[in-house]
Design a protein that fits this description.
single chain; 408 residues; alpha/beta; 14% strand
Length: 408
C-alpha cells in the first residue's frame, strides 16, 4: 500500500501536535481494523506562524519535504537549523501553496491565514481535514463552490461536526455527500441535527450571579483545555453559535433544523435525527485525536482507539436546553447565520474584539453579549462573493466593535 502524504499547517498548535501524535500511533500499528496492512502516512510538509523552535524540532524528527514559517523574519533561523534537503519557505501565502501538494491537508492554522490553505486544498481536489473556523464561519459562501472540485473532500476536525459527519455517514444516502455538502438534507433523509455543548463554567447561573465573574472564572472550563479566546467563547456559548453556522455550511441543514443542547458529560458529541424518526449519536471520551484520526483515515477507520468508552463504568447522558436569556451570544450567532452574506464574518470579528476587551479588563463578562449585539446592528448587509469581501467584513466588524467600546 502506497503511503498517504500529509501536510500539517499549524503543526505547532494543539491540532497540529495531536495530528502528529495520530500519525505516530498509526505508524506503530501494523494491521488496520479490516485486517489489511495498516495505512501509512508520510508527512510531506509542516507549517507554523512563529513557533520556530517547535517547528524545527518537528521537522528534524519527521523530515518533511517542505517547512513553512509564516513570519518571514524567522526564515533564516529555521533554514540554518534544519538538515539539508528540507525546503524552507516563509509567508502565510506559502501555507496553502505548499499544503496542496499532499494527499491530505490538515488545516490547523488559526485565523484568516488558514483560509488560503482551505482554498488551495479544495481547489486542488484534495482531502481537507479542517480545523480552521474562519474558512466556514466567515467565508462559507466563498468556500462552497470549491467543495465541488473533482476529488475534493472536506472532513471536519472538530468534535461536534466530526460527530455529525459520522452520523450522516451511517446513512447510506449520506456517505458520498457528507464530505461535499452538495445535496439537500431531505435527499439524505436528515430531519435535524443536534449540537451538544458542555455548558461551560457558568451553566446554571442566573443573570445577577454572572455580573461579577472574573477572567479566571471564565477560563475554568470543566471539560476541555483550550486557549483563552475559545474558552471565553465557550463560557458565553458564542463558540457553540459559531459552530451552528459551520454546521449549516458543512451539511446544508437549515437553521430552523439545527438545535443546541447542553450535555455536561461531553460524551455525546452531537446527533442527527432522520426523517424516519431514528436518531444517531457519536459517543466517545473527549479526545481531539479521534476526529483527527477519522479525517486522516476516511472513509476507513483507524486502529488506535482514541477516546474509547469503558461501558462498565457509569455514564452521564444528561441533556438540558441552554438558557438563551443568559447566554445571548447563541441567538446572535443564529441571527447572523440566517442573515448570511458577510454577517457571520462581521459578528465573529466583533466578538474577537469584545472577548479581548474582557480578557484585558476593559469590560465585564456580561457585557460581551451586549457589545456583540450592538456591533451586529451596524452590519451593512454586504455580500460575500470574494475573499476580499470577507476580509473587508472582518476589518469592518473589528472597527465597529472598537469604536463602540470607546463610547462605554
Amino acid at each position: 500500500m502506497m503511503p498517504t502524504t500529509v501536510s500539517i499547517m499549524g503543526s505547532t498548535g494543539s491540532i497540529g501536535t495531536q495530528a502528529i501524535d495520530v500519525i505516530d500511533a498509526t505508524s506503530a500499528s501494523r494491521v488496520d481494523p479490516a485486517g489489511d496492512q495498516a495505512r501509512r502516512f508520510v508527512v510531506d510538509s509542516l507549517g507554523a506562524n512563529r513557533s520556530a523552535d517547535t517547528l524545527i524540532a518537528q521537522a528534524t524528527r519527521l523530515r518533511p519535504r517542505t517547512v513553512v514559517i509564516g513570519d518571514p523574519s524567522l526564515e533564516a533561523t529555521v533554514r540554518d537549523a534544519l538538515p539539508s534537503g528540507i525546503e524552507v519557505r516563509s509567508g502565510t501565502a506559502a501555507f496553502g501553496e505548499v499544503a496542496a501538494r499532499a494527499d491530505v491537508v490538515v488545516n490547523g492554522v488559526v485565523g484568516f491565514a488558514g483560509l488560503g490553505v482551505t482554498i488551495e486544498a479544495l481547489g486542488a481536489g484534495k482531502r481537507l481535514a479542517l480545523a480552521n473556523k474562519e474558512s466556514l464561519i466567515a467565508a462559507g459562501p466563498v468556500v462552497a463552490p470549491l467543495r465541488r472540485t473533482p476529488g475534493a473532500e472536506l472532513i471536519p476536525v472538530d468534535s461536534e461536526h466530526c460527530a455529525i459527519h459520522q452520523c450522516l455517514a451511517g446513512s447510506v444516502a449520506a456517505v458520498d455527500v457528507a464530505a461535499h455538502g452538495d445535496a439537500g438534507p431531505q435527499q439524505r433523509g436528515v430531519r435535524s441535527i443536534v449540537l451538544t455543548a458542555s455548558g461551560g463554567p457558568f451553566r446554571g447561573r442566573g443573570r445577577e450571579e454572572l455580573r461579577g465573574v472574573t477572567v479566571a472564572d471564565a477560563l475554568a472550563h470543566p471539560t476541555w483545555s483550550m486557549g483563552p479566546k475559545i474558552t471565553v467563547d465557550s463560557s458565553t456559548l458564542m463558540n457553540k453559535g459559531l459552530e451552528v453556522i459551520e454546521a449549516h455550511e458543512l451539511f446544508g441543514v437549515e437553521y430552523d433544523n439545527i438545535e443546541v443542547v447542553v450535555h455536561p458529560g461531553s460524551i455525546v458529541h452531537s446527533m442527527a435525527t432522520f426523517t424516519d424518526g431514528a436518531t444517531l449519536a457519536q459517543l466517545s471520551l473527549p479526545d481531539m485525536r479521534l476526529p483527527i484520526t477519522y479525517a486522516l483515515h476516511w472513509p476507513r477507520r483507524g486502529a488506535t482507539p482514541f477516546g474509547a468508552i469503558d461501558f462498565s463504568q457509569p455514564l452521564d447522558l444528561h441533556f438540558e436546553p441552554p438558557d438563551r436569556d443568559v447566554f445571548r451570544c447563541l441567538d446572535l450567532a443564529f441571527a447572523a447565520g440566517r442573515a448570511g452574506a458577510t454577517a457571520p464574518a462581521f459578528l465573529s470579528a466583533a466578538n474577537e474584539v469584545n472577548v479581548d476587551a474582557f480578557l484585558t479588563g476593559r469590560i465585564g463578562w456580561w457585557q460581551i453579549g451586549e457589545a456583540n449585539d450592538s456591533a451586529l446592528q451596524h452590519w451593512g448587509g454586504e455580500a460575500a462573493v470574494s475573499v476580499e469581501d470577507v476580509l473587508e467584513a472582518d476589518r469592518r466588524g473589528r472597527e465597529v466593535a472598537n469604536r463602540l467600546l470607546l463610547r462605554q
